[in-house]
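Morning!

This is the sequence you dropped in the shared folder:
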Amino acid sequence: MFLRRFWWFVFISSFGQFACAKDDLDSEHPQEKAFTFRAPDYFPIPVDMIDNPLSKDGIELGRYLFYEPLLSGNQQVSCATCHHPEKAFSDGLITSNTGISGKALERHSPALFNLMWSTNGLFWDGGAKNLESQAFAPLTHPDEMGVHFPTMVARLAEIPSYVEMFRHAFDEAPSSAGIAKALAQFQRSIVSANAPYDQYRSGKNPKALNAQELIGLKLVQSHCASCHEGELFTDNAYHNNGLDATFEDDSHEEVFFGRFRVTRDKKDLGAYKTPSLRNIMVTAPYMHDGRFASINDVLNHYRFGIKRSAHTDPVLLAKMSGKGIPLSDADVDAIKAFLHQLTDHEFLNNQQYSNPHKNK
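The structure's back. Tokens below.
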């Protein structure tokens, strides 16, 4: 990899309730339990997950479980059903209908990467505090995986390889809590940091971006960075970006309320979590409900279609002229050219994140 220098954290699952089994092999080779988390030195430092430290065994168990259809009621749906690695762990659907019921969900499946830095809630409205608690929602949702925990755990407990993997990862038998911890570890290990932009940013290849793409980078920094900030290209916060002017909602999940569904604070009406711009060119359609089919639709929304309300982000309003942000056609072409350079093909094809069941 191009990464010139790493900050790193080594997590060893060898303490407290998360201790690994200390058989002879473990005691002789404790480094085999360690996992070195790597990212470029210009990335922010993530928060140490003290209650669920990363380990090789925990991550590998999580990878198996992520692709495991036994975690669904009908034994045909896995987490990967809605999160495809070649699409940056999104699914390309407006709203997925591939869950256990076949009914379309009310929200678009988000991409999954660089979640080690996502400590401000999960889901489009921040309804889950962390990845451990987030896992239980799709597992139990009647239109997603629809499983009963005792059934799910019993299935895994009947498979010797899973029993052994849980023992190595958590020194315990299969459990619903262990499943959530392992899934969280795997997802936190998924890092996207080797796009052409990163080769430019790191200094590895100063010519990785051409003149038009550099103009696009400056335009993104000027017009988009109030939400899509920093090297993650997201502030992991919640904003009303003018998709709607009214927020009446009689849907079962109050999807149009946005962050307000969680906080019940009116300033959060219509506010949704900022997705990263990294890999954005492979994660269409866009927005929490998948309403925009293409990146052109997204940019046209910001140019011509922002709806003003008492809840529209004031930073966005300050950038507007008329119904949108003043961008020329040439500006749009430059922005799109740059966004293509945020596609990390190494990440999209990384076998460390692939389905391990296919290799059996």
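Headline: Residues 196-343 form a domain with the Cytochrome Bc1 Complex; Chain D, domain 2 fold (CATH 1.10.760.10).

More detail when I'm at my desk.
O.
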